[in-house]
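Our consortium's second objective concerns turning raw sequence data into structural hypotheses that experimental partners can test. To show how far this objective has progressed, the report includes one record in full. It was chosen at random from the queue rather than selected for favorable results. The single chain below, 266 residues long, was entered without modification.
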Amino acid sequence: MNFSSEKTHIMGVLNVTPDSFSDGGNFFDVDTALVHAQQMALDGADSIDVGGESSRPGSDPVSTEEELSRVLPVLEKIKQELDILVSIDTYKPQVAKAALEAGADMVNDISGLGDSDMIEVVSNYNVPVVIMHMRGKPKTMQKNPVYNDIIEDIKTFFAERIEAAKKGGIKKIILDPGIGFGKTLEHNLTILRELSRFKNLDYPILVGTSRKSFIGTITGQEVDKRLEGTIASNVIAIMNGANIIRVHDVKELKAAALVADAIKYA
């Protein structure tokens, strides 16, 4: 898995939740989720990120048992049917461990390894982990987030979490500045415009802007009408240093990434 090559890695989003902001309830049963995963693979996804708990602003957490009952059947089915990398989107060590046992290839942790047990799990399985920056919890993260310097503050957080990860034996790290997670519109725009400032940390960068509310704020469009804004934000992210883009609309974003890569690496 070389996430730093001259090719943008496309991570397809598969939310097996009833309440995710964009596609909640759409892929809540195993068969529907598998069909969608198959379509994303056909459309050019390099990996599929399976999540069983919504992290939209204001969302409530779910129990470990509930999350496991949502993600494990889907994950196992995808690994049986498809030859594709699967990421487990969770901050719970117990869920990550069970998912890795079931064949998941990496962990996407929105809490940035906030639970020290997660470090042990990731290290034991020797898989890549996405360390994401979030201010607060999904329930409260959008209540007046304030930073001194948004980029430097996130870089300080990353430096501390990278040190903890490396001390714990983790070798494969990916950084996600957490667009929309405890960020205002201006914060999100600054991150995308100045994304290259994270490159000197020397780890692959993942960006997730797909259909997010900042696009709706700019365009006035509802969540299912934000494709063009998603494409624009991801192309800019790629040009400014993103190695991985996490998206709902794989086919369209794959084409956009191919063009952006051709220009960037010409």
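The partners drew two points from this record. Residues 208 and 246 are 5 Å apart (CA to CA). The beta strands are 9-15, 47-51, 85-89, 106-109, 129-132, 173-176, 206-207, 244-247. Both points have been shared with the crystallography group to help prioritize constructs.
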